[in-house]
Amino acid sequence: MNNISGVISSIRQIMWQDNGLNGDAQRVEQLGWMLFLKIFCDKDKELQLLSDGYISPIPEQYHWDNWAANDEGITGEELQEFVDRQLFTALRNIDISTGNKRSILVREVFDGNNNYMKSGTNIRKVLNKLNEIDFNKAKDRHAFGDIYESILKELQSAGKSGEFYTPRAITQFITDIIDPKLGEKILDPACGTAGYLTCAIEHLTKQVNNVEERNQIQENVIGWEYKPLPYLLATTNLILHDIELPNITYRDSLDRPLSEYKEKDRINVILANPPFGGIVANNNENNFPQNFRTKESADLFLILMIHLLKQNGRAGIVLPDGSLTGDGVKQRVRKKLLEECNLHTIIRLPNSVFQPYATVATNLLFFDKGTPTKEVWYYEHRLPEGQKSYSKTKAIQIKEFDPIKTWWSNREENEIAWKVNVRTIIERNYDLDIKNPTKVKESHNYGSDELIEMLNHSFEKSNALLKVLREVVK
Question: The CATH number of 158-438 is which of 3.40.50.150, 3.40.50.720, 3.40.50.1980, 3.100.10.20?
Fold first, then answer.
């Protein structure tokens, strides 16, 4: 682990010296495609040993071993020219006519990502450092997987790229609560860097007894992502979690009419942090029924997820406060959710969980499809004592969710947990933005006798003050 940590530290220092790289997001993308190619080619070598007939989809001259593996190999301008003019061009145009999934993976990764480095000498230095890691050694791969998670976490503070990363404590808590089982189809339709998918894989791996069950995970853990950088990072993340051929599709999740999804496409479990505050592109809102059309991405994703769940399927998702309230389409979306699903729990989070990327207040929603909602439990997750907000250095921790896990299976109302009957929600026009009642002082809690008593007491105090004032004036 220390050795691999040192390798990453050295790579960072080399990258900081390169004029072509600007900011953490570009450095992560640069490391991402190099890492992907190294891991992919290491896997090719293993597959060739296991099967005589295996042929790598990558043409021989572009295989890692033939241009990158030799520490004394091409460097400087020659290497720069090779990467920019030959390597990327060849891999973006790789033959996918046979439908070979490994070919498609390579093409999709290189089609959307770039080489930013401007010094062939620096590229050579980074390649040589990566050559110190053998991704066919489980120990190396797992150690790197842990470090990779911390690299992805840095994206949270890398400007716009923060949208691709959900704090580990959130993905872990939702996965623990939803408790996916072997054989279930699990989807994240906005998978980002694959935080939920890796949590699901780790959760399922503990249930595995044989190779067949292990292979099942590869098929059943599914992600969709339409931006090139997170698609690359998610794919690499799953490979580091021993998923040989990640089931991640490079697509806009809103790009198909709902009517095209058949029963075979339906899902048992959805774990997601759908994009919110986004404007839907390419008129994709027209893929949805007329009464649900909106440009707000979070609302369309919620409709999509309800539609994709099988009967008795379950979901754990992140939604902003803005999705819990509002008229028009927003109200109709919430009505559909409450009528078609049992929205049994909403965890209200402090509004700094996603800082510095986003400061909006967010919620964790848990629902099962197939029976309408009768009541919704709310739980207010508070900041640790003495902490004013979450930040880059003080992120939300998984242990903070322990009290919720204890409360979950033995629910009682208290100063941070309350339940609301669906009739109350309907009377509020399906508004789900219901604050903690212990924080709301309502006048109707007082009887008329109490109010008269309080008023008399107030008059007495006023008269006493007036008497003192008269004495001072005299």
Answer: 3.40.50.150
